[in-house]
Design goal:
The chain has helices spanning 6-29, 40-54, 69-107, 125-140, 143-157, 169-208, 214-259; strands at 113-116, 121-124. The protein has one domain (6-259). It is 74% helix and 3% strand. A two-stranded antiparallel ribbon has the order 1-2. The chain crosses the membrane at residues 12-33, 40-59, 79-112, 124-141, 178-200, 212-234.
């Protein structure tokens, strides 16, 4: 007769639930994988499949029961690690969205918005377009697979029993947010500078010849200049996105290493 003791059941549950919490947290918070259009059952199934592959490769786990205070605390730690790793990649796409907002504002089409189901709010049309290009680039470069591979690597860098709440990795996460936002500003800088020059030229022309009616043609000119510059930037925009994604994957590893508590 097949029988299972409480100790064996606890070992099986801890071996699955603790890594499952970290993986599910990343799947639900990461770009594309955590999109609202993907059903929750698909996310849970994907996290469960990855956990079944990863769990046998983990080292010894803490000797704590699942529903004890220590077990719940470890579960919370794993969830926070997964959310932090997913947030690292979300910041990359937030930088792209910021660049689109700045470009659209300078072109005078900031009022053109679409409903973003991911953010549950209205987003600028240009930001939505750039974000769609970034997502397609992310998938074409197998960024989602690299992200999952980086997550699996974190189990070696940060053991399951790590106490991450007192680790210095959270400061590294805030620094990464600032660097990613500066990358978004650099992406929009050529368009913003060109539009600034165009607006200055239109202002000087309005002072020299007021009868032209700058306010009637200014909007069309700035929008045309912005569209032409974005079209000229497209060949270099995809490699720029690729570098952002590579930096995001590397930042996941650096942050995971910083989350490891000192021995």
């Amino acid at each position: 007769m097949f029988s299972v003791t409480y100790a064996q059941l606890n070992v099986w549950l801890t071996a699955f639930l603790w890594p499952f919490a970290r993986i599910l947290a990343l799947v639900t918070s990461a770009p594309f994988l955590g999109h609202r259009a993907i059903p929750a059952r698909v996310k849970i199934g994907l996290a469960a499949c990855v956990t079944l592959i990863v769990a046998p490769t983990l080292g010894p786990l803490p000797q704590a029961t699942v529903f004890s205070a220590d077990g719940v605390w470890i579960l919370v730690n794993q969830f926070l690690i997964g959310v932090a790793l997913g947030f690292v990649m979300q910041v990359v796409f937030a930088a792209v969205t910021t660049a689109g907002d700045l470009m659209g504002l300078g072109m005078g089409i900031g009022f053109a918005t679409f409903f973003d189901p991911q953010a549950q709010s209205n987003s600028a049309a240009l930001s939505t377009w750039l974000n769609a290009i970034a997502v397609l680039t992310f998938l074409a470069l197998d960024g989602h697979l690299q992200m999952i591979a980086a997550l699996v690597e974190t189990f070696r860098l940060v053991p399951v029993d790590a106490n991450v709440l007192a680790a210095p990795g959270w400061r590294l996460l805030s620094d990464w947010t600032a660097m990613a936002m500066s990358a978004g500003l650099l992406l929009s800088l050529p368009v913003v500078i060109a539009l600034l020059i165009a607006n200055l030229s239109l202002g000087m022309l309005n002072r020299a010849a007021p009868q032209i009616g700058i306010f009637q043609i200014g909007f069309a000119i700035t929008m045309l200049v912005g569209m032409l510059l974005i079209q000229m930037m497209m060949p270099n925009m995809i490699p720029y996105f690729a570098r952002l994604f590579d930096n995001g994957i590397e930042e996941m590893g650096r942050m995971a290493a910083a989350l490891r508590p000192p021995h």
